[in-house]
Write a structure and sequence with these properties.
One of its GO terms (molecular function) is calcium ion binding. It contains seven helices and two strands. With about 150 residues, the protein is mainly alpha-helical.
C-alpha cells in the first residue's frame, strides 16, 4: 500500500475510532496487512482475515482456547457477516476488545449471549487478560521512526 493510501485510510479509521490515536491505528493497519499477507500467500487472494486466521491470532496472541468463544469473538468483529474481518472491522473490533469501556464490552458480547444462551452458563475467558493486552500493545505500538517506508 502506498504512503498516500495508507495516510487516507489511517485518517478515516482514526476518525471512527475512539480508543486509539492516529499512530496506534497506523500500527494496527500495518499489522493487519502483514497478517493478511501471510494468509494470502498460503490461500490465494483474501480480502481480510478469515475465521481460521482470526482464531489463530486469538489463540497465539491472547491465549484463547475455547472454540465457541473464539467463534463468537470472530462474529463480533465481522460486522458485515461476510466471513472475513476487513481492516475497518479489525480496528473497530480491537478498539473495544482491548480498550473498550465495561459498557462497550458488555454490549459487544451481549450479541453473542443472545445468539447462544449457554454462554451464560459456560462463560469462559473471552476478553484478553491485562498481561496479554499489554504485551500485544507493546509489540504493535512501537516507535514511529520504524515506519520509514510503508
Amino acid at each position: 500500500m502506498n504512503r498516500k493510501k495508507l495516510q487516507k485510510l489511517t485518517d478515516t479509521l482514526t476518525k471512527n475510532c475512539k480508543h486509539f490515536n492516529k499512530f496506534e491505528v497506523q500500527c494496527l493497519i500495518n499489522l493487519f496487512y502483514n497478517l493478511v499477507g501471510d494468509v494470502t500467500e498460503r490461500q490465494g487472494v483474501v480480502t481480510g482475515l478469515d475465521r481460521n486466521a482470526f482464531r489463530n491470532i486469538l489463540h497465539m496472541t491472547f491465549g484463547m482456547t475455547d472454540d465457541m468463544i473464539m467463534d463468537r469473538v470472530f462474529r463480533g468483529f465481522d460486522k458485515d457477516n461476510d466471513g472475513c474481518v476487513n481492516v475497518s472491522e479489525w480496528i473497530s473490533g480491537l478498539s473495544v476488545f482491548l480498550r473498550g469501556t465495561l459498557e462497550e464490552k458488555m454490549k459487544y458480547y451481549e450479541q453473542a449471549v443472545r445468539e447462544e444462551t449457554l454462554l451464560l452458563e459456560a462463560f469462559g475467558p473471552c476478553l484478553p487478560d491485562p498481561k496479554s493486552e499489554m504485551e500485544f500493545e507493546a509489540q504493535v505500538f512501537k516507535d514511529p521512526n520504524e515506519f520509514n517506508d510503508i
